[in-house]
Design brief:
The complex is a heterodimer of chains A (154) and B (250). With 154 residues, chain A is an all-alpha fold. Chain A is built from 6 helices and no strands. Chain B has 10 helices and 3 strands, in the order H-H-E-E-E-H-H-H-H-H-H-H-H. Chain B has helices at residues 2-17, 22-35, 75-90, 95-106, 113-130, 135-158, 162-182, 190-197, 203-214, 218-249; strands at residues 40-46, 49-55, 61-67. The chains are: A mainly alpha (154), B mainly alpha (250).
Chain lengths: 154, 250
C-alpha cells in the first residue's frame, strides 16, 4: 500500500468522523460510523487491485459497508439511515462532480459528457448497493421474526 | 384518548424535524397508534406534512394534520425519539409520561459554533488531501472551509433559504480559492474547491431520495430529489458566477 493510499484512507476517516459530529452522532455510534468510513475506502483500495472497474467496486463497497452498518445499527438500537449514509461519505464522487461542473463551464462537450456519465454511474452504483443491503436485511429480519412467532404478521 | 393521539403526532413531527426518513416515521406512528389500541390507523407522511387518522373501537375517529418545517439533521435526537417510541410500544404510558419523555428527548443542546466551525474546516482540509491535494493545499483548504462556514453562519440569520445559503457558501469558497491562487500559495483551485464542496453537495440527500423512491414513498422521494437537484444547481451557479466575474475583472 502506497503513502498516497494510506493518506487517502486516513483523511477519508477524519472526514467521516467530522461529518458524524456535524450530524450529532455520539458515543459508540460515532465510533461505529467512523470505522465504517475507514473500512469503506480501505476496501475500495484493496478491490482496485483485483477488479479494474471502479463502478463495480463502488457497488461492492456500498453493499458490504451498508450491510455492516445495518447490523451495527441493530446492535446499537438506532435508526439505520444516518449510519449508512455517513459511513459512505468517502465514496461520494465529489471530484468527478467538480470536473463535470468545470467542463460544463469551459464548454468542453466531450469531456463534460464523459465525466457526467461517469459521475452518474458512480452515484447509481452507490445507491444500488445501499438499497440492496437494506432490502436483504429486511428480508432476513422478517424471516427471523416469522420464525420466532409464527402467528405474528410481518 | 385525544391527548395520547396528540402526543404521537408530536413525536412524529419531531422525528421528521430531526431528519428521519418518511418510511421510519410512518412505521413508528403506526406502531404507537396500534399500541394505544386504535383498531385502524391511516398514516400518510411526506417530508413536510403529516396526516394521520385513527379509528377507535366505539366507532368514532380522529384526524390530525401537521405542517412540518425547519428540518435539521440531529442523529442524537432521532435516536432518543426512536427509543421513546419503542418504550411506548412495549409498555403503556400516560400522556403526561409521554410528554415528559418527549421533552427530555428533544432537549439536546445544539452543537457549539466553534465545534461546528472546526468540523467544517477539517472536512474541507481532509477531503482536499483525499482527492489528491498536497499539504499546502490542505492547509489553505482548511482555512477556506473555516471562512466559508463563518460567512454562511453570518448569512443564516438574514436568509432562511437553505438552497440560497449553499449558493452563497460556494461563492465564498470559490472566490477564496481563486484569491489563494492569485497570491501564489497554490498552483490551481481544483483541489480546494473539491474539498469544500464535499460538505455542500447533497450526497446524503440524494441517497435518501433514491431510498425513498425505491421503498415506495414516491412523493417524498420526488420532493427530496427535486431539492437535491436544485441544491446541485445552486452550487454550480455559485461556482460559475465567480469564474465569470473573475474572467471579467482579472
Amino acid at each position: 500500500m502506497t503513502i498516497t493510499e494510506i493518506a487517502q484512507i486516513l483523511s477519508g476517516f477524519v472526514g467521516t468522523l467530522c461529518f458524524g459530529i456535524l450530524f450529532r452522532i455520539r458515543g459508540w455510534r460515532l465510533c461505529a460510523v467512523s470505522l465504517g468510513g475507514l473500512l469503506s475506502w480501505f476496501l475500495f483500495v484493496i478491490l482496485n487491485r483485483w477488479i479494474p472497474n471502479e463502478v463495480v467496486n463502488y457497488f461492492i463497497v456500498a453493499l458490504v459497508i451498508s450491510l455492516y452498518n445495518e447490523i451495527m445499527a441493530r446492535v446499537l438500537k438506532t435508526p439505520t439511515t444516518m449510519f449508512v449514509t455517513t459511513s459512505l461519505i468517502p465514496l461520494i464522487p465529489g471530484g468527478s462532480l467538480y470536473y463535470t461542473m468545470a467542463y460544463a463551464f469551459e464548454g468542453n462537450r466531450e469531456h463534460f459528457l464523459e465525466k457526467a456519465i461517469y459521475t452518474l454511474q458512480l452515484a447509481s452504483a452507490l445507491a444500488l448497493g445501499i438499497i440492496l443491503a437494506a432490502t436483504l436485511t429486511k428480508i432476513v429480519c422478517n424471516f427471523l421474526a416469522a420464525r420466532k412467532s409464527p402467528d405474528a404478521h410481518a | 384518548m385525544e391527548e395520547l393521539f396528540t402526543c404521537v403526532m408530536d413525536i412524529g413531527e419531531q422525528m421528521l424535524i430531526a431528519g428521519a426518513e418518511v418510511h421510519r416515521v410512518e412505521d413508528s406512528v403506526g406502531r404507537m397508534c396500534r399500541a394505544f389500541g386504535y383498531h385502524r390507523t391511516d398514516v400518510f407522511i411526506i417530508t413536510s406534512s403529516m396526516v394521520v387518522t385513527v379509528y377507535t373501537d366505539d366507532g368514532s375517529w380522529m384526524t390530525q394534520t401537521r405542517r412540518v418545517s425547519g428540518i435539521s439533521t440531529d442523529s442524537e435526537k432521532l435516536h432518543r425519539l426512536n427509543q421513546l417510541s419503542r418504550d411506548i410500544c412495549s409498555r403503556p404510558m400516560t400522556a403526561q409520561q409521554i410528554r415528559d419523555g418527549l421533552a427530555a428527548a428533544v432537549d439536546v443542546s445544539s452543537l457549539p459554533f466553534l465545534s461546528d466551525l472546526l468540523c467544517c474546516a477539517v472536512i474541507a482540509g481532509a477531503f482536499t488531501l483525499f482527492f489528491g491535494g498536497g499539504v499546502t493545499e490542505m492547509i489553505v483548504s482548511f482555512f477556506v472551509g473555516a471562512l466559508t462556514r463563518i460567512g454562511s453562519f453570518a448569512a443564516e440569520r438574514a436568509i432562511a433559504n437553505r438552497i440560497f445559503l449553499k449558493f452563497l457558501s460556494t461563492l465564498i469558497a470559490t472566490a477564496l480559492a481563486f484569491l489563494a491562487v492569485r497570491l501564489g500559495w497554490i498552483p490551481s483551485v481544483d483541489k480546494i474547491i473539491i474539498g469544500n464542496i464535499m460538505s455542500l453537495i447533497p450526497g446524503i440527500g440524494l441517497t435518501n431520495a433514491l431510498r425513498d423512491l425505491f421503498t415506495g414513498d414516491s412523493i417524498a422521494g420526488i420532493l427530496r430529489f427535486t431539492e437535491t437537484m436544485l441544491t446541485a444547481l445552486a452550487i454550480a451557479a455559485g461556482y460559475f458566477l465567480v469564474v465569470i466575474l473573475g474572467g471579467v475583472l482579472v
